[in-house]
Design goal:
Chain B: This is Phosphopantetheine-binding protein. The complex is a heterotrimer. By secondary structure, chain A is mainly α. Chain A folds into three domains: 200 residues, no CATH class; 198 residues, no CATH class; 83 residues, no CATH class. Chain A has 22 helices and no strands. In chain A, helix 3 crosses helix 7. Chain A is globular. By secondary structure, chain B is mostly helical. Chain B has a single domain, classed as Orthogonal Bundle (Non-ribosomal Peptide Synthetase Peptidyl Carrier Protein, Chain A). In chain B, 57% of the residues lie in helices and 0% in strands. Chain B has four helices and no strands. Chain B is globular and about 30 Å long. By secondary structure, chain C is α/β, with parallel strands linked by helices. Chain C has 13 helices and seven strands. In chain C, the strands form two sheets. In chain C, strands 2-1-3-6-7 form a five-stranded parallel sheet, with helices on both faces. Chain C has a two-stranded antiparallel sheet with strand order 4-5. In chain C, strand 6, helix 10 and strand 7 form a beta-alpha-beta unit. Chain C is globular and about 80 Å long. Chains in contact: A-B, A-C. At the A-B interface, helix 13, helix 14 and helix 15 of A face helix 2 of B.
Chain lengths: 523, 76, 360
C-alpha cells in the first residue's frame, strides 16, 4: 500500500488504537504484526526473501555472540599470552561467520536487483566472441524495501561482531527491526541498538508527542501530494517530448525535477518519521536542509543522511582501517613527500569505494555508478585544490569566511546538485550530454509558460516559499512543531487547516492525475 | 600529549586543538580527517584503532584522544 | 482531569470546524458552469435545468459514450428528448447512484447503459505470487475512497480549483444552468488512430468493479420506474474484443434486453467510419465527426428497432430545445469552420455561445 493512500491512513489508525490500548510490554508485538501485515500486502510470497535474510542474520549473530561469551568466560582463568591466542582464535571464527552471513545476504540483493545488470556485463564481454546473449534477461520481482532492509541487516550483524550490541535472543525482535513498516519503504537506515532500545521502552499515550508526530505527517503529505506529485504529473510529458523544446526548457525541467525529488523523498520520510513518532519511536534523521550546504561534502551529510552514515560506518571506516589499506598508505608515504598529496591519495582511494557503492545502490545501471562518481570526482577536485584555492583567495583578497562567499558556496552547491539530478534522471550518458549541452545553446524563455500552467506555477511557488521558510527556521535550530504545540491554538489550527485543505484540494491525486508512486520506493 | 598535538597539526594545520572541547561535534575534524589521524596514530604508537573506537567521545578533546591511545597501548 | 476535558472539547471543536470547512469547500468547488470546466459528474446543475419529466431516454456510461452520443442531433433529426448522463471513469456503483437521483426528476422510457465500463479482461500482469494480497489492499482503498467521495463532493470536484473566481466563494450558486450540450462533449480535435481495430488479448473477459452486481441493481431500478434497459457499446480503437462482447451478450440474454455493440463488426454498422478522421485521441474517444455517425446510427435504431416516437412535450419545452439546437449548431459550425485540429490551445471546449463573435 502506498503511504499516501487512504488504506494506509486506516491501517495506521487501527494500529495506533491497538498500540495504546494493549499492555505496554506487548506494544512491540503490535508493531511487528502491523509491519508483517504491511509487508505481506505489498509483496505477498516475496516476503520469504525478507524472512530468509532475517533468519541468516539472526543465527549468524547468535553464533558470533556464542564465541564472544565463550571468550568472556574463559579469559579470567587464562594468563595474558594464552588469553591473546584464544582471543585471536575466536575472533577468526567470528569473522568467518560474519563474512559468510554478509555475503549471503548481499548475494540475495545482488541476484535479485543486479541480476540483469551483471548479465548485461557478461553478455557484453561475451559479445566479443559470440553474437548471441549468454544470459537471458530475467524478470525478477523485488520484495518491498530489499535495498533498505538488506543493508540494515548487515549493520545488525556487524554491530554484534564489533561488540557494539549483543545478539538478540528473540528472533521476533530481530524480525521487527528488519521489517519495521515505517522504515521499510524508503528508509531511513536505522541501527539496531537505537531502535531496540525504543521498542523495549513502554510508551504512554503522550498527547504532545503524538501531535508532534502528526504535524510532521501532515507536512510530509503536503510536500508529497501538493508539490512532488504535481510536478510528477506534468514534467514527464515535457521530458518525453524534450526535442520540441529549447534548452531553457531543459534547465527548467532540471530544476523542477530536483525540487520534485526533494519534496517527494523528504515528504515521504516526514510521513513515516511522523507516523513512527506517533508510536513513540524515533527513526534516524535523513534530511537537514540539504540545499543550505556550502560544499558537496556537506550536502551528502545533509541529504539522505542515513545512507551516508551507513556507508561511513560499514564501508568507509572498515576499508580505511583494513590491513590492505594500511599497506597502500605506507607505500604512498614512502614514495611521495608532500603530506597534502599523501593525504589526498589515501582519502581518494577509500572514497572511491564509498561513492561507487553509493551510486550502485541507487540502481542497477552504469548511469547510477557514474552519478556516484560524478560527486566523487568533484569532491576530490575540491579537496585536491583546497590549498591552492586558499592561496588564490588570499591573493585576490577574498574572505572565505565572509557572508558573500558563503552565498557563493551555497549557489555553487545548488548548481552542482541540479546537474547531478539531471544525470540521475537521464537514461544514458549520451542523453545527459545532449540535454546538458542543449541548456547552453538554445534559449527560449517562453518555454516556461508551455511547461507549467499558471495555477500550477502559483501552487509550486507557494510550496517553495513554505519549504524555504520551514528550512530557515529549522536551520536556526528551532523546533517549529514544538513551538506550535506550546503556543496559541489559533495559530496551530490555522496551520493544520492550511496543510489539510491544501493537501485535500490541491493534492495531485485521484481522477485526472494518474498516481505518481514514491520515486525512492523503487529501490 | 605533545606527539598527538603534533600529529593533529600535521593532519589539519592552522587549527587550535589544544583548547577545543568538541573537535568532532563542532566539525573541526570530519570523517576523512579522522581516518588520516587514525592512520598516523596507528603508525606512531604502534596500536590498532578499531572501528568501534571511532566514536565522537574518543576524539572530542585532545585528552580523550590521548586516553584512547594509552588504553590501546595497554591492551597489547 | 480538567486538562483532559479541555483537550477533548478542543478536539471536538477542531473536528466540527474541519467538517464545516470541508462542506464549504465542497460547495465552492462544486462545478457551477459546466461549460467553463468540463469535469466529472458536474452535470447535475444542467440536468436539473431540464424541465421535469421531459426526457425520454438517458445514456449512462463513461467517457466513451459522452464523446459519442449527441442529444442535440437526436432532437434535430427525430425530435426525441434524450440526455447524456455520463462522465469520465464512471464506475458501475456510481452509475447506479446517479441513476437513482436522475429518476427523481425525470421519467425516461429507456435507459441506455454502455457496457465498456463494466467489463475488463483478466490482465497478463496479475501474478498470484505477488499480487493477490495487493488486490486486497487496493480493494479496501477503493471502498474507503468511494465512501468518502460520496460523502464529500470535494473529492470529486477538486480539480476545478484552477477555474475558481472570487465570486465562487461568496455568491449563491444557481442550482440550474441551462446547457446546450446535454452531457455531450463537443470536440473537433482529430488525432488519427493508425493501429489495428480491436484488442489483442486472449484473456478471459470478466466484470470489473462489481459490474454484474450493479447492473442488476440498475435493471431493477429501471423496472421499478417502468423503464426499459438497453445495452450499448461505442467504437473503440483497441479496447474491445470478442471475449468481452460475448460476456455482455450473455448478460443481455440473461435479462432479455437488446444489446447494440457498435464496436464489433464496426464496418458493417458504419461503413463510412474512419479511424483517421473520427477520433480525437488516437482511438480512445470519438470526435464530432465520429459522434455524428454514431448518433445517426443510434437514432435510426431508436426509431426503427426500439419504437421510439417523437417526444410528447409541452410547447415551451419544444421551443427551448429548438433554441438549444440552434445555439449548438452555431457553435459546432463555428468550430468546424476554424478547422480545429489537434492541440489548439485557443479554444477550450466545449464553448458557450457567448464566446462566439457577434455576427457569424
Amino acid at each position: 500500500m502506498e503511504i499516501t493512500s487512504l488504506v494506509f491512513l486506516a491501517f495506521v489508525g487501527v494500529t495506533f488504537i491497538v498500540y495504546y490500548l494493549i499492555p505496554k510490554k506487548y506494544q512491540w508485538v503490535v508493531l511487528l504484526s502491523a509491519s508483517l501485515l504491511f509487508f505481506v500486502t505489498s509483496s505477498a510470497l516475496l516476503t520469504l526473501y525478507m524472512l530468509f535474510t532475517t533468519a541468516v542474520i539472526f543465527f549468524g549473530a547468535k553464533g558470533i555472540q556464542k564465541y564472544k561469551d565463550e571468550f568472556a568466560k574463559k579469559k579470567k582463568e587464562l594468563p595474558k599470552p594464552e588469553r591473546k591466542v584464544l582471543k585471536e582464535q575466536l575472533k577468526k571464527k567470528q569473522k568467518k561467520i560474519l563474512i559468510l552471513c554478509v555475503a549471503v545476504v548481499i548475494a540475495v540483493l545482488v541476484l535479485t536487483k543486479y541480476c540483469n545488470f551483471l548479465g548485461g556485463i557478461v553478455n557484453g564481454i561475451a559479445s566479443i566472441f559470440t553474437s548471441t546473449d549468454l544470459l537471458p534477461k530475467f524478470n525478477i520481482l523485488l520484495p518491498l524495501g530489499i535495498s533498505y532492509y538488506t543493508l540494515m541487516s548487515v549493520s545488525y550483524i556487524t554491530d554484534v561482531y564489533r561488540g557494539t550490541i549483543k545478539a538478540e535472543v528473540n528472533p521476533l525482535r530481530v524480525l521487527l527491526f528488519v521489517c519495521y513498516f515505517p522504515h521499510i519503504v524508503e528508509g531511513p537506515f536505522d541501527r539496531y541498538g537505537d531502535l531496540d532500545r525504543q521498542f523495549r521502552t513502554p510508551h504512554k499515550f503522550d498527547y504532545d508527542k503524538i501531535r508532534h508526530g502528526a504535524i510532521l505527517v501532515m507536512y510530509g503529505c503536503f510536500k508529497k501530494l501538493v508539490i512532488a506529485d504535481r510536478i510528477g504529473f506534468f514534467l514527464p510529458k515535457t521530458f518525453a517530448k524534450i526535442d520540441n523544446y529549447s534548452g531553457t526548457a531543459v534547465f527548467i525541467g532540471m530544476v523542477l525535477y530536483t525540487f520534485q525529488l526533494y519534496a517527494d523523498f523528504s515528504g515521504c520520510i516526514d510521513i513515516i518519521s511522523g507516523v513512527s513518532e506517533m508510536f513513540g519511536i524515533k527513526v534516524a534523521e535523513n534530511f537537514k536542509q540539504p540545499f543550505f550546504s556550502k560544499s558537496i561534502d556537506e550536502f551528502w551529510r545533509r541529504w539522505h543522511i542515513s545512507l551516508g552514515a551507513w556507508l561511513k560506518e560499514y564501508v568507509f571506516y572498515p576499508v580505511s582501517l583494513s590491513g590492505h589499506f594500511k599497506k597502500v598508505n605506507t607505500f604512498t608515504k614512502k614514495h611521495i613527500k608532500s603530506q597534502h598529496i599523501v593525504g589526498f591519495i589515501t582519502i581518494a582511494y577509500t572514497l572511491f569505494f564509498v561513492w561507487f557503492c553509493n551510486g550502485l545502490w541507487h540502481g542497477a545501471s552504469w548511469l547510477y555508478i557514474v552519478y556516484g562518481l560524478y560527486y566523487y570526482v568533484l569532491m576530490m577536485l575540491g579537496k585536491f585544490t583546497e590549498p591552492y584555492t586558499d592561496k588564490l583567495a588570499k591573493k585576490l583578497h577574498i574572505n572565505k569566511e565572509s557572508k558573500g562567499y558563503s552565498v557563493f558556496q551555497v549557489a555553487r552547491t545548488v548548481v552542482i546538485v541540479n546537474v547531478g539530478m539531471l544525470l540521475f534522471r537521464s537514461s544514458t550518458l549520451v542523453e545527459f550530454g545532449k540535454l546538458f549541452g542543449k541548456m547552453f545553446t538554445s534559449i527560449n524563455f517562453m518555454d516556461f509558460c508551455s511547461i507549467i500552467k499558471f495555477q500550477d506555477g502559483v501552487v509550486l511557488a507557494v510550496g517553495f516559499v513554505v519549504m524555504l521558510l520551514v528550512g530557515i527556521i529549522k536551520e536556526k535550530g528551532i523546533d517549529i512543531r514544538m513551538w506550535l504545540i506550546e503556543h496559541n491554538f489559533v495559530i496551530r489550527w490555522l496551520v493544520y487547516y492550511f496543510l489539510l485543505f491544501s493537501t485535500i484540494i490541491l493534492g495531485a491525486y485521484g481522477v485526472g492525475y494518474g498516481g505518481a508512486a514514491a520515486i525512492y520506493a523503487q529501490f | 600529549m605533545e606527539t598527538v598535538l603534533e600529529i593533529l597539526a600535521k593532519v589539519k594545520p592552522n587549527v587550535d586543538f589544544k583548547n577545543a572541547t568538541a573537535i568532532v561535534d563542532d566539525g573541526l575534524l570530519d570523517s576523512m580527517d579522522i581516518v588520516m589521524l587514525v592512520g598516523e596514530l596507528n603508525d606512531e604508537f604502534d596500536i590498532e584503532i578499531q572501528v568501534t573506537d571511532l566514536v565522537p567521545e574518543n576524539f572530542n578533546t585532545v585528552d580523550a584522544i590521548v586516553k584512547m591511545v594509552e588504553r590501546l597501548e595497554d591492551e597489547d | 482531569m480538567k486538562k483532559n476535558c479541555c483537550i477533548i472539547i478542543r478536539s471536538i471543536c477542531f473536528m466540527l470546524i474541519f467538517v464545516g470547512l470541508l462542506y464549504y469547500f465542497s460547495y465552492v468547488l462544486t462545478v457551477r458552469n459546466v461549460e467553463r470546466y468540463p469535469v466529472r459528474n458536474a452535470f447535475w446543475q444542467t440536468y436539473d435545468a431540464e424541465e421535469d419529466n421531459s426526457i425520454d431516454a438517458l445514456f449512462v456510461g463513461d467517457s466513451s459514450i459522452f464523446h459519442s452520443i449527441n442529444p442535440m442531433q437526436i432532437w434535430r433529426d427525430k425530435k426525441i428528448t434524450t440526455y447524456n448522463l455520463s462522465y469520465a471513469v464512471m464506475k458501475p456503483q456510481e452509475a447506479y447512484f446517479d441513476l437513482k437521483r436522475a429518476f427523481k426528476t425525470q421519467s425516461p422510457k429507456t435507459v441506455f447503459v454502455e457496457s465498456q465500463f463494466m467489463v475488463e479482461t483478466e490482465s497478463d500482469g496479475f501474478d498470484y505470487f505477488t499480487d493477490n494480497t495487493k488486490e486486497i489492499a487496493g480493494f479496501i482503498n477503493d471502498q474507503i475512497g468511494g465512501t468518502l467521495d460520496n460523502l464529500f463532493p470535494i473529492m470529486k470536484y477538486k480539480k476545478s480549483w484552477k477555474n475558481l473566481t472570487f465570486s465562487d466563494f461568496v455568491t449563491n450558486h444557481p442550482n440550474k444552468i441551462r446547457s446546450i450540450y446535454k452531457g455531450y462533449n463537443l470536440t473537433m480535435k482529430t488525432v488519427s488512430y493508425n493501429g489495428t481495430h480491436g484488442k489483442k488479448s486472449k484473456d478471459r473477459a470478466c466484470f470489473a468493479d462489481e459490474g454484474e452486481i450493479y447492473f442488476k441493481k440498475i435493471y431493477n431500478l429501471c423496472k421499478r420506474n417502468n423503464c426499459n434497459v438497453v445495452l450499448l457499446n461505442m467504437p473503440q480503437g483497441n479496447a474491445w474484443n470478442k471475449n468481452m462482447h460475448n460476456l455482455v451478450a450473455k448478460l443481455a440474454k440473461e435479462y432479455n434486453i437488446k444489446y447494440y455493440d457498435f464496436d464489433m463488426n464496426l464496418n458493417k454498422w458504419l461503413p463510412n467510419f474512419s479511424w483517421k478522421t473520427d477520433t480525437r485521441d488516437a482511438g480512445h474517444h470519438l470526435n464530432y465527426s465520429g459522434a455524428k455517425k454514431v448518433t445517426g446510427l443510434m437514432e435510426k435504431y431508436m426509431v426503427e428497432d426500439l419504437g421510439f416516437k417523437p417526444s410528447k412535450v409541452s410547447e415551451s419545452v419544444r421551443k427551448q430545445w429548438n433554441r438549444d439546437v440552434n445555439d449548438f449548431y452555431q457553435v459546432a459550425d463555428f468550430l468546424k469552420a476554424r478547422e480545429m485540429t489537434k492541440d489548439n490551445p485557443e479554444f477550450p471546449e466545449p464553448l458557450k455561445p457567448d464566446f462566439l463573435p457577434p455576427k457569424f
